[in-house]
Amino acid sequence: MPRFLQLHLLTTYPAANLNRDDTGRPKTVTFGGADRLRISSQSLKRAFRTSAIFADGLPGALGTRSQAFAGALVDALVASGLEREEAVTRAETVITVAKLGKVKKGAPAQTEQLVHLGPEELDAIVGLAERLAQPDGLEEKSILVLKDKPRAADIAMFGRMLADNPGYNVEAAVQVAHAFTTHRAVVDDDYYTAVDDIKNADQTADRGAGFIGVQQFGAGLFYLYICIDAGLLLDNLAGDAGLAADAVAALVSAAAIVSPSGKQASFASRSKARYALLEVGDEAPRSLAGAFQLPVGARAGEADQYRDSIARLTDLRDGYKRAYDEEWISHVMDVDRPDGGRLADLVAAARAAVTAQAGG
C-alpha cells in the first residue's frame, strides 16, 4: 500500500513580502552559492491551517493553538457565580495539574507557551466548570483533559509538542519544507511617501509628504516540497480513514491555492501554483530541491524560469528513477498547458492513496 505522498509545487509571486524577519525584510536563504528568497514552513503551515479550505473541508476537526485557551473556562466559572479572581485561580490550577504548560506571570489563566489542543480537549476544559465551581473544587487527580490521539486533523498533520507533558506529544505526519526561489533573487527596497490630503490642499502650506518610509520586497518562482506519511496520519487519527482522506485533500488544495498573508494589502501578492507534481509510493521520500542547487538561469540557454524549472524537476525525478529503480506514481498539473491536468485530479489521487493505505 502506498505510504508516502510527495507534493512538489512551483508558484510565481510578483513583488511580495509574504514572510519577513524581525527587521521587516523578506526571508532569504543561500543555496548553491546563490541568494534566494524564502518562505518559512511555519508561515506556510499556519496559512494552510487557518485557511477557508481547511475550515470548510475539516469542520469540527481542527484544533486551536493559543496561550489563552483557558479563557473560556474562566468565563464559564464567572458565569456560574465565582469572582473573576477566584475563577482565574481555579483555571490556573487546571493548567498546572493537567500539565498543559507553565502559567504565565502577569497574564491571568494564560500559559508561557502556545498550546495546540483539539476540539474535544477544549470542550473537556470548559466542561470542568460545573465541578470546579463547587466549594471543594476538583480532586487534582481527576483533572485530565488531554487525549492521546485528539481528533484534530491539523494536529495529526503538523504535530504538537507539550514540553511539560511529552506523553501527549503528537509526531507530525506531514513535513513541510521552506519554499525558496528556483533562481537567484534579491531583496529590493521600495521608498514611498504618504501625502497629507489636507495639507496638500492648502496652497500656502509646505507640500512635502506627510510620511516617508522604506519597505522591502522580492519576486520570483518558488519551489515547495511537502511529504505526507499516510500511515502515520491514519495512526494519529486513530484509524479514521475518512478524516485522514479529508485532511490530505484539504492540504493538497491549500498548498496549491493558499498564500501567507504577509503584506497582502501592500502587494496583493495572491497566487496559485502553476505546476504541481504529486508522487505516491512506498519508497524512501526525497525532495527534488537539488534540481535548483545551480540556480535556474545559470546554464546556457535557460531563459524561461518557469519552463526551465519544470525541466529541472523532471530531469532529477527521472534521474532518481533510473539510479534507484524508483516506482513512484506521478500525477501532474501544469497550468500553462492545455492538457496539463487539474488540481481536482491530484486531490482525488491523494484521497485514493490514503484510502488504500487504510485498506479501504
Describe this structure in words.
- With 360 residues, the chain is an alpha+beta fold.
- 35% of the residues lie in helices and 21% in strands.
- It contains 13 helices and eleven strands.
- Strands 1, 2, 3, 6, 7, 8, 9, 10 and 11 form a nine-stranded antiparallel beta sheet that branches. It has a two-stranded antiparallel ribbon with strand order 4-5.
- A hairpin with a 2-residue loop joins strand 2 (28-31) and strand 3 (34-39).
- Helix 10 (241-257) runs antiparallel to helix 13 (343-357).
- The protein starts with a strand and ends with a helix.
- The relative contact order is 0.20.
Helix-strand layout with pairing:
Layout: E1 4-16, E2 28-31, E3 34-39, H1 41-49, H2 52-57, E4 64-66, H3 71-79, H4 84-97, E5 115-117, H5 119-127, H6 129-132, H7 153-158, E6 174-176, E7 179-181, E8 188-194, H8 197-201, E9 211-229, H9 230-236, H10 241-257, H11 264-267, E10 273-281, H12 305-324, E11 329-334, H13 343-357
Helix pairs in contact: 3-4, 10-13
